[in-house]
Write a structure and sequence with these properties.
This protein is 46% helix and 12% strand. The protein is an alpha+beta fold. It starts with 16 loop residues before the first helix and ends with a helix.
Length: 219
């Protein structure tokens, strides 16, 4: 058979950094590395390599790649907060003081139990935890192997996206849990287009922290 009559096998497709970026761009939710590997017909090690390369490529751009455990998602960069705010037009963070302070404790002390949060803040944490779970900012992260096996809480990928963080390593230096998270409010406003909840403030019954309690949060 002549060469002209022989079918020529197509070269195997090898996923590129641009392929991973395009995939993450069109998917409107976080995807796992396993999902990415399946969709890109690549191995896990190949996806890990592409993630590292894409993170480096985006370093000087207005988009960042958020990694949280096995999950991946694109988000606007923290330095682009002002530009994004011009479009979003929000009037401020829609988290009131109690959930924001509780979120700060969890972010820096995770995984932490409800009791641990209440010991630091000095007030009941039921309402704040409920709000944060409903917003998808925290999740259950197992149970403490002690009497009663209390639930431990940790932050989610949505938390990173909301506050413009690439990973937990990007959290500001700890100078006080609540104050550190307040420094991220502008990022929060820029990446969350939901309107402020009017009834949240009415429902917030947590007592304000005393200076002594805030000092405890920085221990």
């Amino acid at each position: 058979m002549s060469d002209e009559g022989q079918s020529v096998a197509a070269a195997p497709w090898v996923a590129t950094v641009e392929d991973l970026e395009a995939l993450l761009f069109v998917v409107d939710r976080p995807i796992t590395r396993r999902e990415a590997a399946k969709l890109l017909e690549a191995s896990k090690s190949d996806v890990d390599r592409l993630v590292t390369a894409l993170t480096a490529d985006l370093a000087e751009r207005g988009i960042t790649l958020i990694t949280h455990g096995d999950e991946l998602q694109l988000a606007s960069g923290a330095e682009q907060a002002r530009a994004v705010l011009a479009w979003v037009g929000t009037g401020g963070s829609d988290l009131t003081a109690a959930p924001l302070e509780t979120l700060a404790v969890i972010a820096y002390r995770q995984p932490v139990t409800k009791g641990g949060i209440e010991e630091i803040r000095g007030v009941d944490a039921d309402y704040a935890l409920r709000v944060l779970i409903e917003r998808g900012l925290i999740e259950e992260a197992g149970r403490l192997e002690t009497a009663g096996r209390p639930i431990r809480y940790a932050t989610t990928l949505e938390f990173l996206r909301r506050f413009g963080l690439g990973s937990l390593a990007d959290l500001p230096a700890l100078e006080g849990d609540a104050e550190a998270l307040r420094q991220l409010d502008l990022r929060s406003e820029a990446t969350d287009s939901s309107s402020a909840s009017g009834d949240e403030a009415d429902a917030d019954t947590d007592a304000p922290s005393s200076p002594a309690q805030e000092d405890a949060a920085t221990d």
